[in-house]
Amino acid sequence: MPKIKLKSTIVEIDGDEMARIMWQMVKEKLLLPYLDMNLAYYDLQLKKRDETWDKVTLEAAEAIKKYGVGVKCATITPNKDRVKEYNLKQEWQSPNGTIRAALDGTVFRAPILVNNIPPAVRSWKKPIHIGRHAYGDVYKNCEYRVPEAGKAELTFTNSAGKEMWRGTIQDFKGPGIIQGIHNTDKSIGSFAKACFTYAYDQKLHLWLGAKDTISKTYDAQFRKIFEEEYQNNWKTKYEEAGLEYFFTLIDDAVARIMKTEGGMLWACKNYDGDVMSDMLGSAYGSLAMMTSVLVSPQGFYEFEASHGTVQKHYYKHLKGEKTSTNPMAIIFAWTGCLRKRGELDQTPEVVEFARKLEEAALETVEGGVLTGDLMLVATPDPKNRQVYTEEFIAEVANRLKMKLE
Ligand code: NAP
Ligand code: MG
After folding, report:
1. For burial by CB atoms within 10 Å, which of 39, 40, 241, 327 has the most?
2. Which ligand number lies closest to the CA of residue 373?
3. C-beta separation of 64 from 340 below 8 A
4. Is the minimum distance from the CB of 216 to ligand 1 under 6 angstroms?
C-alpha cells in the first residue's frame, strides 16, 4: 500500500522520560508505516533545553506560528530535584508556559470516551471540554500578611504618575491577610476568541461561568468581553450552526454540568479551570484518557496529552522492567494534529487515516485490552486483560492494519 502523503509540514516537539519512549513507539508502529510526513522536529528533552539555553523551546513555538499545526510530547518542568538530576544550568521555565505565552494561547482539554469506562457522573454521555484561562488572577497575585491593626488600601496610579483611584480594602482591627490580583482586557479577549473558535470548530455549545453578582467589576469584565466577542464575531455563525453561547454564574454552571449530557466547551477562569479540569479528568476515568490542545487566537494549534512524562514508570523502564503505561492520549494528540492538518490542507485521506487510528485505539480498549491504569476503572469483564505498553500498541497496530487494507 502506498503511503499517504501529507501536503504540509507538522511541527513535532519531542519530550522526556516515559512519554518520550511511548512517543517513539507510536510513531514507529502506528504512523511512519502509513504516512509520508514532513516533520519539523524540535527536541525539547530537558538536556537539549539546557544545552540551548532554552532557545529550542522558543524556536518550537515560532515553528508552530509558521506551519500552523504542531504536536508535543510531555516535557519535564524542572524543579530543584531535576536541576540536580540533570545537572542543569538553571531551573528553566515550564516549556508549556513558554509556548503558551509565545502563542498567546488557551489550553482545551477533553476526555477520550470508551464504553467500558463509565464516567463517575451517570448523565454524562458526551465529552465535556474545558478551556482554562491560564493567565492572571490568583496565579499572578501580590499578597501580604497583615501583622497588626491598620488600614489596607488599593490604589491605581497611571503611567503619567497621577493617582487615579483609591479604595479601602479593610480597616484591620488586628492581624489578617490581603491579596491583590489582576487581569488584562487583552488576555481575556484572546481567551474569549480562542474559546469561540474552538467551540465552533468542534461544534460544541459554549458555557462561561463567573461570579459577576459578587465581583461586579472584575468578574463582570469577563462576562462583558465574552458578550462583545459573541455579538461582534460569532452570533450569526453560532445560530446558523445551531450552537449556543451561554453565560451563567459559576456555581450554577457547576450544578448544571452535573445534570447535563455533556457536549459543551466550559470556559473557566484560571482558578476554576485548574480545579475543574482535575475533577473532570478523574470523573472520566484516567488522566491518561485526556487530550489537550493549545489554540491561539490566530488559529494555530498544538496538540498534546494532558498527562506528564510519567516519571515513576520511566524509572522502572530504566531498570529494565516492563511497564503498562497508557499511550491513548499520545495517540490522540497525533490524530488530533493529523485531522487538523488534513482539514487545513483539504486532504480527506489524512483525516480518514486519523479517524481509523482513533477507531483502532478505542476498539482496543473496548475489546478489554487494557493498561494498568484502565484495569482499575474499566467495567469488570472476563475478557479484560492487562498488557504492557508495547503489547497495547501492537494490538492497536493490528487493528489499524486491518482497517487500512
Ligand atoms: P504524570 O506524568 O502525569 O504522572 C502522574 C501519575 O499519573 C503517574 O505516576 C501514573 O500513576 C499516572 N499516569 C499519568 N499518565 C499515565 C499514563 N499515560 N499511563 C498510566 N498512568 C499514567 O505527572 P507527574 O509524575 O506529576 O509529573 C512527571 C513530570 O511530568 C514532571 O517533571 C512534570 O513537570 C511533567 N509534566 C509535564 C506536563 C506536560 O508537558 N504537558 C504535564 C504535567 C506534568 P501511577 O504511578 O500510580 O501508575
Ligand atoms: Mg490542578
Report:
1. 327
2. 1
3. no
4. no
Give the model confidence (pLDDT) of 368-377 as tens digits. 999 999 999 9
Angle in degrees, CA 195, 234, 223, rounded to 5: 55
Closest CA to 74 of 58, 55, 90, 94: 94
Rounded to whole angstroms, the Cα distance separating 251 from 256 reads 9
Query: Facing residues of 39 across strands?
Result: 10
- Kindly tell me the number of DSSP H helices and DSSP E strands found in the chain: 15, 18
Mean local confidence (pLDDT), 67-74: 98
CB 200 within 8 A of CB 238: yes
Task: Kindly list the domain boundaries of the chain, sorted by start residue.
Answer: 1-115+292-405, 118-136+183-284, 142-180
Alpha carbon of 217 to ligand 1 centroid (Å): 38
Q: Which pLDDT belongs to residue 213?
A: 96
151-207 residue pLDDT tens: 999 999 999 999 999 999 999 999 999 999 999 999 999 999 999 999 999 999 999
The answer as to CATH 3.40.718.10 being correct for domain 1-115+292-405 is yes
